[in-house]
Amino acid sequence: MLKNIFWSLIFFPDQVRETNLPYAPEHKTKTRKRIVECARILFNRHGFSEVSIDTVMAEAGLTRGGFYNHFKNKDELYAEAVASFLNGRGKTWRDEAGVDPVNGGPQTVRDMIESYLSTRHLGDLEGQCPMIALPSDVARATPEVQSAYEALLRAMIWLFENNLPEEPTKRDKAIGLAALCVGGMVLSRTIDDDTLAEEIRSVSKSLALKQLETGERS
C-alpha cells in the first residue's frame, strides 16, 4: 500500500497533489496563472470554440478535475485570459514598443499603430491580441465572453482617445483607429493569399497614420 502511494506521487504528482494534498495559496495562484496563459495561447491559435477544457488542462500539465478548483466554466477562463493580456503579454508588447498609455500623447498613438499593424504582430499567432483571433467566436458566445472582448476593445479606444490632440472629433477618430487596427489585422489573418494579406495590413497602417497626422496638423 505504501509502495503504491509512493509510486503514484512520483508518476502522477499534479493529479495526486491537486486532489488530495493541501497547497499554499501561492501555489494555487501560480497554477491558475499557468492555466490562464495556456488557455490564452490555445484560444489565439485555434479559436474559442475549438479549444476544450481538457485541451487547456493537458497543455498546462494538469487534469480536468483541477480546472474546477480555479474556474466555474470555460467562459470564465476566457474572460480572465483576455484580461490577463492587458497586464501580461500586452504590457510586455507595449513596453517593447515604447507605448506609454497614460502620458505619451500622439507619439503613443503612432507607436501603437506601428506596432499593432506590424508584420511581426501579423505573424505572432500565440502572442497576438485576442481581438484579432476571436471575433467570429465571440459574436456567437455568451454575454460573459462578449463582455471580456468588449473590455479589451474599450481599452484600445481609451488609449487612442487619451493620447490624441484635443478636438471635437477626438473620440470618433479613436474609434476609427481601433477599427482600422483590429479590422485590418483580422482581414489579413483571414486571407490565404500572403500578398493580399500584406497589402491589407500595409494599407490599414497607412490609413491609420494618415488619420493621426490630420489631427496633429489641425
For the secondary structure, the number of strands is 0
pLDDT below 50 for ≥5 consecutive residues: which ranges? 1-19
| Mean pLDDT across residues | 83
- Helix share bin: over 70%
Oligomerization state: single chain
List SSEs in N-to-C order: HHHHHHHHHHHHHH
**CATH superfamily descriptor of the largest domain:** Tetracycline Repressor, domain 2
Rg, rounded, reads 21 Å
Strand coverage percent? under 5%
Return the CATH architecture of the largest domain: Orthogonal Bundle
Q: What about the largest sheet?
A: none
Query: What's the number of structural domains?
Result: 2
Tell me, what's the shape?
Answer: globular
